[in-house]
Automatic annotation (TrEMBL):
It comes from Pseudonocardia yuanmonensis. PANTHER family: ACYL-COA DEHYDROGENASE, ISOVALERYL-COA DEHYDROGENASE, MITOCHONDRIAL-RELATED. It holds the Pfam family Acyl-CoA_dh_M. Residues 6-117 form the Acyl-CoA dehydrogenase/oxidase N-terminal domain. Residues 231-380 form the Acyl-CoA dehydrogenase/oxidase C-terminal domain. Keywords: FAD, Flavoprotein, Oxidoreductase. This is Acyl-CoA dehydrogenase family protein. InterPro entries: Acyl-CoA_DH_CS (IPR006089), Acyl-CoA_Oxase/DH_mid-dom (IPR006091), Acyl-CoA_Oxase/DH_mid-dom_sf (IPR046373), AcylCo_DH-like_C (IPR036250), AcylCo_DH/oxidase_C (IPR009075), AcylCoA_DH/ox_N (IPR013786), AcylCoA_DH/ox_N_sf (IPR037069), AcylCoA_DH/oxidase_NM_dom_sf (IPR009100).
């Protein structure tokens, strides 16, 4: 049992930390409030090779271990969680393509995705189907050597930059159970009938766009069917969401870390009644609670990531980490706001952004309530044990 990062992971983390402190932290608040797209930060992430995190080395990627993958999202979210979304959806899609794509698909897309020359996302959710993916209504009808796609997708990160965009569809709407008739098509940007219709306004998670995408008689070559076989889309998507939940758990740790950093500094610097507020027991209790929650969330996230590196199925572990870390992020952000008092509610301080960003972590990549059901079913069926 080793609770330490290895030398390579430590160097990777330090490089990321330096990038975040120099390129993200100084501009995050102003750019988030003005709605400015973080083009320069994206370019910096390209130079670090971060768009290739989930791409195998033979296609030009970093092929990062899962702990390093988690470190990336933790550090970037410490600076600005919205930026992590740009990289997160891209990485989940790359992982899915690398694991399930045909060799031709991998050769066509992965080298450019690894450098960030191409970017991608993943189009799963719809206006009437979020966590219940089997309820999607987007249909792909086979006509000769093409699929004709019609439907609407919602909350799609990177939609305006994705090329290709993997889209979950029903190739057999009559299949029972429904997942046996679901597939993923790789839709290239500029395909006629493929339209990004709007950016959806959000409480937090700014810096990256979340869009509505409408597909109207979009013709997609059959060669763009992920893996080349129909009916596997649900399994392909769910396997990629294991990494997505590690991603969300790590983002949550980043939010909690920033809440701790801001609270510690404020408790030392802010004075009241003639002394630093950190001298008051009530503030000390809240600060200690943030620290405990933060470290517990970090250890659970790294544990789940290391399990994935061991090559075992870890949907239970990733679900547990995501549930726990996301709820700690919200608790830490709330306590940070309380420590800051009135200033915590001000847009001049960082903690109000943390307070707006944290709730999404309990929703994204499967709501926590649904994931509790997933974990419980695995425990009851003996597929996972806690001892």
């Amino acid at each position: 049992m080793d609770f330490q990062l290895n030398d390579e992971q430590r160097l990777f983390r330090d490089t990321l930390r330096n990038f975040v402190d120099k390129e993200i932290v100084p501009v995050a608040r102003d750019w988030e409030q003005s709605g400015r797209y973080p083009t320069e930060i994206v370019e910096g992430m390209k130079q670090l090779g971060l768009f290739g995190l989930a791409v195998p080395e033979e296609y030009g990627g970093l092929a990062a271990d899962t702990v390093s993958f988690a470190l990336t999202f933790e550090e970037i979210s410490r600076g600005w969680m919205g930026i992590a979304g740009i990289l997160g959806s891209h990485s989940v899609s790359c992982f899915m393509l690398a694991r399930h794509g045909t060799e031709e698909q991998k050769q066509r897309y992965l080298p450019d995705l690894a450098t960030g020359k191409r970017r991608t996302g993943i189009a799963l959710t719809e206006p009437g189907a979020g966590t219940d993916l089997q309820g999607i209504r987007t249909v792909a009808r086979k006509e000769g050597d093409e699929y004709v796609v019609n439907g609407t997708k919602m909350w799609i990160t990177n939609a305006r930059y994705a090329d290709p965009l993997p889209v979950l569809v029903k190739t057999d709407p009559t299949a029972a159970p429904a997942h046996k008739g679901m597939s993923i098509l790789l839709v290239e940007a500029g395909t006629p009938g493929f339209e990004v219709t709007q950016d959806i306004g959000k409480l937090g998670y700014k810096g990256t766009e979340s869009c509505e995408v409408v597909l109207t008689d979009v013709r997609v070559p059959a060669s763009q069917l992920l893996g080349g076989v129909e009916g596997r889309g649900m399994q392909q998507a769910l396997s990629s969401l294991e990494t997505g939940r590690i991603n969300i758990a790590a983002r949550s740790v980043g939010i909690a870390q920033r809440a701790y950093d801001e609270s510690l500094n404020y408790a030392r610097e802010r004075t009241a009644f003639g002394q630093a507020i950190g001298e008051f027991q009530a503030v000390q209790m809240r600060l200690a609670e943030i620290a405990v929650r933060l470290q517990a969330a970090r250890l659970m996230t790294y544990w789940a990531a290391s399990r994935m590196d061991d090559g075992v199925r870890m949907d239970t572990e990733s679900g547990m980490a995501k549930i726990f870390a996301s709820e700690q992020a919200l608790a830490c952000a709330t306590d940070a706001m309380r420590i800051h008092g009135g200033y915590g509610y001000s847009t001049e301080f960082e903690v109000e952004r943390l307070y707006r960003d944290a709730p999404l972590m309990s929703i994204g990549e499967g709501t926590n309530d649904v994931l509790r059901g997933v974990v419980a079913k695995a425990l009851l069926a003996g597929k996972a044990t806690i001892r």
